[in-house]
Amino acid sequence: MKVQLNDAFFNRLETMSLNLKSNLRGYFGGKHLVSTYGQTVEFADYREYQLGDDIRRIDWNLFSRFEKYFLKLFTDERQMQVQIFLDCSASMGREFSDKASYAIAAAAALGFLAVQEMDKLSLYLMNGTSAVNPYGLIVGKNSFFRAVSAFDGIEFRDEVDMESCITNCPDVGDNNGLSVIISDFCTDQWKKAVDFLLYKHRQVLLLQVLSPEELDPTYEGRVTLIDAESVSPEDSKNMKLRITRSMLKAYEEAMRDFKEDIRTFCSRRDVGFLSVSCDMPIERVLFGELLKAGIME
Amino acid sequence: MMKFLVPLGLLGLIGILVLIIIYIIKPNYQNKYITSTYVWKLSLRYKKRRPPTSKLRNILLFLCQVLILTAMAGIMAWPALVEEPEGETADYVYILDSSASMYAGNADYETRFSRAVKQISDEAEGVFNTGGKVSLIVAERESKLLFRRVDATSRDEFSKTLMGLQCTYASADIEKALTMSRDILGENPLAQLYLYTDTTYEYIPEKVHVVNMQAEGDWNAAILDAEATREDGFYVITVSVALYGNEAMEIPLSVAVSGANGESNHTIRFNKFVLCEPGETNTVIFRLGGGKDDENLFYSDIGDLNKFSSFTSVTLTFEADDSFDSDNNYYLYGGDKEVLNVQYASADPNPFLPAALYTARNMLSSRYDFRITEVKKGVEPALEGFDFYIFEHTMPSALPTDGFVLLADPDPMWQSSVPAGAGFRVSQAIDLNGNRETLAEGEDFAGHPVAENIIADDITVSRYCKIEDVDPAYRVLLSYGGDPVYMVRNDGAVKMAVMGFSVHYSNISKLIENPLLMRNLLDYFFPAIVSGNSFEVGEEFTVNTWGSELEFSDTGETFTEEDLPAQFMLDVPGTYTFRQRSYFEDAVAQGIKKEFITAQVFISIPAYESDILRRTDSLSDPYEGTETETDYKDLLLYLASALVAFLFVEWWLHSRESK
């Protein structure tokens, strides 16, 4: 399913926003309410006056009633940095453009939500052992749409080492926003990458994009499965199989456990996880699954 | 026993080959490009560990397909169970090869024949003890059925007959013996046939049991053939020898010439060591001056002292201590030819009759030594002392009584008359006025030996003698206008021929008929006593006589002229003598003629029998055509059922394959 990144697509996202955790520190400014107290007009709490506090914030009505000094505290609003790590390995694209376009659309949608909230957006393309950000730091819709117009040039090739890509990323930040990893996670190195992001106190969301054929293979008989990331027919990634009903059943179980393993890993670390099939309408993912998961509001 | 009624149907088995080729060229795996094999690799851990049924299933599938093809080919070949005809199994037919080579002996001096007899005796005894039946056929030149399906009641007679059998020196007609066994096998197709022989057969019919009597170490050095021919007035001895079995070896070949050069007590001896290779025939030539040896050809120079122009006998000996000694000696006879004295007397000597005489002499030179006396004009010819008298133009005053007489042209113009006792008279000479008239065949022309190869129409005459009052003993061979012009008489001691025309008034002098008539006359009146000097056992030869009777010296049997010519055949190798008694008793009494003329022949064993290790291609099947009662039980239904079952199993295995 090819997703068109046009005005109609982004218009539908106007009413949505990312629901980030309040304990993030973020940057000054922005629209995200955080648990720290700040200068907004929205009342948060009271506390007793302490030496050095600004006396302009003493609530005199309370003083008249309790003859003690209390300060009136207000919530703070912060600007976050949203980082999207897009898996650009061959398994996400090359022969399978639906999967790639779906991943790009998801990245674009999440990015739009970020810039709409006045957050900083960084879109990293992971390939090999490095993650590059060809679009720079995106702030505001103008720069966002400029970046979107360049999305057609994204290449999906080779393998990706997520651990190296993310740990070597020069601008991961610390406790300052959301990191989204969009991939099929058909690799073993992603867990350390997630742990690294959590170590950096980032809010993490994993978005797994799978093709319908991966979820429900239709082929059978004697086949040589050629991995999109293999470099030669003799590559160890390729495998010869005689696909029978029992084999398909085993695959089904393996896929279920594979996703369950990711989900368990994520739930233990308070990491958001969403697995989608690219034949699922993107609107349903954005307005259904992400809302349900509390990533969006 | 199962049999395929349409064996060509088995060509369907080629399908199995095709199946194997299909399996070989069948693409095993098809490429499928997918995003990642990550989950597939994980899934391997989830796959239930089952016994390797898929491999077993594949093998079963292939096996099933092979069986299906086999069943189909089997159906096409129409298999049927052969139901054997009923009969007794304890029924044995023994064929005993009695050919000469069965005389070959082993180290214990037992011949193959005696060993075969003993084995048959033992076997037959066992058969009799079990209540079975035995038949015995002896394969000789003329095979004989001695016993036909006899049981134990004939045990003694069988044993006595068997033990009394003698091996022959001839070749055996095994095929005839097998043919004789067909009658017995026709009665009981289950009868078992045993052939005791010393011939190795490359192909032996399935049911025939051949007991080969050859023994290890058997070998034979043989003289296969020999002949004496004249070359430049002296004899050359040519001998064919061979070695069978054993290794290449030098074997001495000795020659002893008795009665050489007319000296009855003189014997010349010489020999030659012949290098023999097994299985090869060598020719050895003993001649004055020798010759250049070639492959399998050896010359031996007998030397100037040993040359000989006549002999009484030549004894050849191949000195080898081999397994078979019947062919180690060979004898040659006929080296001392009988002398025939011929007298030619003519009132007008001409070259034509003598020319015919000399030509005939050359033709018969291998048989007789002609000594021709030409009587000069004006000299009175002799009337005794010759074997053949020719009187031309002028007739003798009396007929000679000790030889054959030819009266040519008894024309009255020569002022002589036919002698008394000639059996005819000449009334006149008839001149045909220069016309050359063709002669006709006389009433006795057809089939008469003197008329052999003569064409009467070719001979013309312009003058002839009118012969009348002809004795009925004469046979008229040529005639003109019903008058005899050429006739012969062979009436006991009276042996005459009459030519009733002159060579001067005929074209016969330039025709082949001239020497032919002379040759035929001589052959008729002086036939060969024996048609050769060497024969093989069982080989037919002709004996004849030009005397009053012929005596076969070895049996004392006597043949008169009426019994001859006769065909002769001898069964035992060796030297035999035929003796002819002269007609002319008076001449014998006067010492002018010999009373007896003898001829010797040597009978050898057949050269074929010398190969005591011989191999032959095949043996005919005596059982062929004896199984007329054979029934066939069709197996198509069973094969069809099996085919359906295999197809079902194939379908079932296929249905299990995708699970």
**Percent range of helical residues of chain B:** 10-25%
Query: How large is the count of helical segments of chain A?
Result: 9
Provide the helix percentage of chain A: 25-40%
Q: Catalogue the unreliable spans of chain B.
A: none
Unreliable residue runs of chain A: none
CATH class label of the largest domain in chain A: Alpha Beta
How does CATH name the architecture of the largest domain in chain A?
3-Layer(aba) Sandwich
Give structural attributes:
heterodimer, A: 297 residues, alpha/beta, Rossmann fold, 2 domains, 6-stranded mixed sheet, two-stranded antiparallel sheet, 9 helices, elongated, B: 659 residues, Immunoglobulin-like, 8-stranded mixed sheet, 5-stranded mixed sheet, 38 strands
Structure, explained:
The complex is a heterodimer of chains A (297) and B (659). With 297 residues, chain A is an alpha/beta fold. Helices cover 32% and strands 28% of the residues of chain A. Chain A has nine helices and ten strands. In chain A, strands 5-4-3-6-7-10 form a six-stranded mixed beta sheet, with helices on both faces. In chain A, α3 links the parallel β3 and β4. Chain B folds into five domains: 2-83 and 633-657, no CATH class; 91-217 and 613-629, von Willebrand factor, type A domain (Rossmann fold); 220-336, Immunoglobulin-like, CATH 2.60.40; 338-523, Rossmann fold (3-Layer(aba) Sandwich), CATH 3.40.50; 534-604, Immunoglobulin-like (Sandwich), CATH 2.60.40. In chain B, the strands form ten sheets. Chain B has an eight-stranded mixed beta sheet with strand order 19-18-20-21-29-28-27-24, with no helix packed on it. The two termini of chain B are 44 Å apart. At the A-B interface, β8, β9 and α8 of A face β2 and α2 of B. β8 (221-227) of chain A pairs parallel with β2 of chain B, so a sheet runs across the interface.
